[in-house]
Amino acid sequence: MTIPELKAAIARPAVPFATGGFRPTNAIEESWIGRVTAFGPDETIPDDVNGKPMVPLAQLYLADLPYLPPALEGITLLTFFLSVNYNDLLQTPSETAAFPHDGSYYVVREYDSVPPSRPLHPPRNRYTLNPSPSAPKQYGMTTPSGMAAVSPRKWNRRFCA
Predict the structure, then answer these.
(1) Which of 61, 111, 157, 160 minimizes the number of CB atoms within 10 Å of its CB?
(2) Does residue 86 or residue 134 have the better pLDDT?
(3) What is the CATH number of the domain that holds 47?
(4) Which domain holds residue 47?
(5) Do 33 and 129 touch, CB atoms closer than 8 A?
(6) Who's near 132: CB < 8 A, 6+ residues apart?
(7) What is the domain count for the chain?
C-alpha cells in the first residue's frame, strides 16, 4: 500500500475553526475560545479539586457545523472548563497514572438545546484567556498526525520544558 492509499484509507472528516479576525455577534449561538456564556439554570463556573474556580476554556456551538461526528449528534452546545492546577497531573511521575474523569481538573458540559445566557464573570488571574470568537471553516478530510499518539505528560516534557 502506498502512502497516498494509506492516507485515503484512514482519512476522516474534520471541521477546522478560525479564531478571531471577525466581529463577534455575542449571541449564545457562537463558538468561543476563552469564554463560556451558556449556563443551565442551576449551573455556575465549576470549582476544581482545590475549591478554586476553573478557567472557561471554550464554548462550541455545534448546530451549524457542516459536519458533525455521529457521537455528537443531538448535542447543540459544548462548554469546557479547565483547572489552573491541570499541570499537577502532568508532573506526576507515573506515565500510567489515570487521568481523573471526576470533574476535579476539567469539566465538559453538553446541552441538547441552547440554555439561557447568563453573565457569569470568572475571577481574572494569570491563567485567564483572552476571549476570541471562533467560527467553523469548510470541512475536509484529514489524517491523524504523530502528535495524536503522544501522551500529555510526554508532550509537556517535550514541548513545554
Answers:
(1) 160
(2) 134
(3) 2.30.320.10
(4) 3-159
(5) yes
(6) 19, 20, 32, 33, 34
(7) 1
Q: How far is CA 103 from CA 97, 106, 119, 143, in A?
A: 16, 5, 22, 30
State how far the Cα of 84 lies from the Cα of 48, in Å rounded to an integer: 8
Give me the half-sphere count of Cα atoms (radius 13 Å) on the Cβ side of residue 42: 0
pLDDT tens-digit readout, 106-131? 899 999 988 766 666 666 666 677 88
The C-alpha cell at 125 is 488571574
Burial of 38 (0-12, 13-18, 19+ CB in 10 A): buried
Cα(64)–Cα(62) distance, integer angstroms: 6
CA 35, 130, 32: angle at the middle one, nearest 5? 35
Annotate 85-124 with DSSP letters as a single string: TTHHHHT-S-TTPPPP-SSSSEEEEEESSPPPB----PPP
CA end-to-end span of the chain: 38
Please state the pTM of the whole predicted model: 0.75
